[in-house]
DNA sequence: CGGTAACCGAGACGGTACGTCAAGTCTTAAC
DNA sequence: GTTAAGACTTGACGTACCGTCTCGGTTACCG
C-alpha cells in the first residue's frame, strides 16, 4: 500500500528538502548521506525513505522546489543581444554550487527526465526566440531551429560538464556570433 | 615506502584491469566495488589499493589500456566529408557501454585531467583538420578554430551526456553542415 | 487522562485478544508484533496501546480470557491417585502450544504476579489435597505441606521449562510415589 | 566461506565477551543490543556477527568463559550435609545477576543444549553423590537416582524461575531433609 | 646460492552507511 | 468523541563495502 500523500507532514517535507540542499552544497553529492539529511532535518530516516526512493530524486525535488528561478525578460528587437543575454543567464545558473552538484549527478545517473525538466526551459526560450527571428527573416527559413538551439547551448553545457575551459561571458558571446553567422543570409 | 614498480606482477595488473572493465560493463559504475574486482581478478584487495587510490583511476587505466582505439584516416580534400567521418567515429566510441559508463563518472567527478585525456584526442583531430582547411581558404581566416571545434563536438557530447535525443549520424551530419556555413565565406 | 473503560469497545477488545492468541500460536512470542495483532484484529495500534502497556500483559489477558480452563474433579479417598491425576492435568495444560509460549515468556520476564496467577491454582489444589490427607493421617503432621507441593510440581515445571526430558505420565507418577514415601510414616 | 578461526583476534574476542557480560549485568538481556556491545568493546559490529549468530550464543560463550566457576569439594561421609552444601552452591550461582539473566533467556528460547551445558554439571554432582550413597546403603537400592536428583534441584530451579518465593538456604535444607526421607529405609 | 625484502593471496579488522523493521506517539477523517 | 488508519520519531537490526592491517607463501634481487 502506497503512502497516503494527503496525510503527509509538510513541515517534515520542507525540512528534508532544505537539509538536503544545504548538505549537498556543503559536502558535495557523493559525501551526502541520507542519515545526515535525516539528522539535520530532525526527521526519521523512514520518513525520507517513505517518500523518496534514493538520493537522486530527493535532490531533484529539493532543487525544483528551492532551486534557482528563471528570470524571463521580454525579447528586444536585437537577436544577437537577446541570445547573448539568455546564454549568460544559463551560465550564471550553472555556476550555483548546489545546482551544479545536483545536475552533474543527475546527468551521471542518466536521469533523462529530470535533466530535461531542469535544463529544457532554457532551451525552449532560445528556440522560441530563434523561431520568431526566423519569421522576421533574421534567420534563414531552411534552418532547423532546434538544431541551432542545441548548437548554442551545447558548447556551453559541454564546458560546464567537462570543465575544458572556464565558462566566461566572452565565450558565450563568441558562440552566439559564430552561430548567428550560420543562420543568416547576411555575411 | 612506495611500492616497487619493478616487482609488480603483470599478471595481477592485467587481471585487475580486465575484471574492472567487465564488471563496470555488467553493473555500471556505482554498483562496482573494489571487493568484487579483487574477487573476480583472483587478487587480494591490497594489491588493488597498492597501485590505485580509488575506483576512478583504476577504471581510467583500464579504459586507456583496454578501451576503444582511434582509427585515424588520412584527410581527403573534402572538409565536410572529413568532419562528418570524424564525428561519426566519435559517436561510435561514445556508444560503447564501458566507455560510456566510465566517462560519465569521470565527468561527474570533475576529473578534468582524465576527461581531457580521453576526449581530447578527438578534438585535436578536428582542430587540425579545420586549421588545414583555414590555410587552404575553406575556412575564413578570422575564425577561432578551437571555438569552432567546440561547436562541432559540443552538441554531440551534450546529447550523449544529457540523452536529450538519440545520437544519430544524420544529426552529426547536420551539425557539420550548419557549422561549416558559419565558417566559410561562401553562402 | 486515563481511558474510560465504560466506553470501551468490547468488539475491538475481543478481536484483539483472539488475534493475539492466534498469532502467538502461529509465530511464537518473539515474532509476534503489535502491528500484526492490530492488523489482524482490524484495529488501530492506538487501541491496543490505550488498554495494554505491552505484549506481555496483552497476552496474559488473552490467555486468562480464552485460555485452558481447569477441570476440577472431587477428591477420591486415594491420595496417590488424586495427586497423579492432578499432575497429569497440569502436564496436559503445559503442553498446549499457546499456553506454553505465553507462560515461557512470562517466566522469562519475571512477571511473578502473572505467573502466580496462571500457575498457582494448580498448586492450591495440590496443597488442599495434601492438607486433607494430613488431617486423615495419610501425611505426617510435621510435614510442610507447601514445601511438599513445591516438590511435586517443581520437578514437573523444571522439565517443562528446561526440556531436560520428555514430560510423560510415567514420570509424574514416579514423582508422586517418591514424594509420598517422604510424607508418610508408613514405609 | 566460513570465517578463518586461525586469524581470529583474541583481543577482540575477549573484549566482546567482557563487554557483553558487563552490559547484560547492567541492562538485563532484552535491553542489551549488539550495537552497544560492539561500541563498548571498541569493535565493529561485523566482528560480532562474524563469529556469533545472535545475542544468545554470544552471551552463552561469555558466561561459559567468564562466568561463575564451580567449587568442587570432596564428599564427606554425611549425605545430607553434602547435598545441602551442593544446593547452596547452586542457589548462590543462580543469584548472580549475569548468570540469572542469561539463563532465563536461554530457558525462554528453549535452547536445551545450552541450558543443559550450564545447569547440568550441578546435577551430575548431585547424582554422583546419591549413587555413592546408594552403594553404601544410605539410599535404598530401588530408588531412581536421576529422578531423585531432579526432585532436589527441581524445586530449587522452579523457585528461581518462577520467583514464587525467595531462594533461602533454609528452603534448600528443608528440601534435602524431605527428599532424603523418601530415599532411605530409615524413618 | 642462500638471505632477505618486496610482492602476492587471503581475509579479519574498526568503521560508516545502508535500507528495513517495529516500537510507541501523534494527527486526521469518518462513523 | 471514540475509532481506524496511518504518518511520525526513534533506534536497533543485519548487510555491504570501505580502506587498513596482518598473515604465510612465493618470487627475485643481492651479497
From TrEMBL, chains A, B, C, D:
UniProt key word GTP-binding: no
SUPFAM superfamilies associated with the record: Homeodomain-like, Tetracyclin repressor-like, C-terminal domain
Coiled-coil ranges from the UniProt annotation: none
HTH tetR-type domain segment(s): 10-70
DNA bind region: 33-52
UniProt keyword terms in alphabetical order: DNA-binding, Transcription, Transcription regulation
Keyword match RNA-binding: no
Protein name (database record): TetR/AcrR family transcriptional regulator
Native source species: Saccharothrix hoggarensis
Amino acid at each position: 500500500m502506497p503512502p497516503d500523500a494527503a496525510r503527509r507532514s509538510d513541515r517534515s517535507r520542507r525540512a528534508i528538502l532544505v537539509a538536503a540542499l544545504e548538505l549537498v552544497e556543503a559536502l558535495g553529492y557523493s559525501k551526502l548521506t541520507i542519515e545526515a539529511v535525516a539528522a539535520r532535518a530532525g526527521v526519521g530516516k523512514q520518513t525520507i525513505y517513505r517518500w523518496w526512493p534514493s538520493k537522486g530524486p530527493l535532490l531533484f525535488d529539493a532543487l525544483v522546489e528551492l532551486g534557482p528561478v528563471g528570470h524571463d525578460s521580454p525579447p528586444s528587437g536585437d537577436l544577437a543581444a537577446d541570445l547573448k543575454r539568455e546564454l549568460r543567464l544559463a551560465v550564471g545558473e550553472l555556476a550555483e554550487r548546489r545546482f551544479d552538484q545536483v545536475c552533474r549527478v543527475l546527468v551521471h545517473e542518466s536521469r533523462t527526465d529530470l535533466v530535461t525538466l531542469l535544463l529544457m526551459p532554457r532551451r525552449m526560450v532560445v528556440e522560441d526566440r530563434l523561431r520568431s527571428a526566423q519569421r522576421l527573416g533574421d534567420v534563414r527559413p531552411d534552418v532547423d531551429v532546434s538544431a541551432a538551439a542545441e548548437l548554442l547551448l551545447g558548447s556551453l553545457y559541454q564546458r560546464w560538464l567537462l570543465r575544458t575551459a572556464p565558462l566566461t561571458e566572452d565565450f558565450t558571446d563568441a558562440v552566439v556570433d559564430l552561430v548567428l553567422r550560420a543562420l543568416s543570409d547576411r555575411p
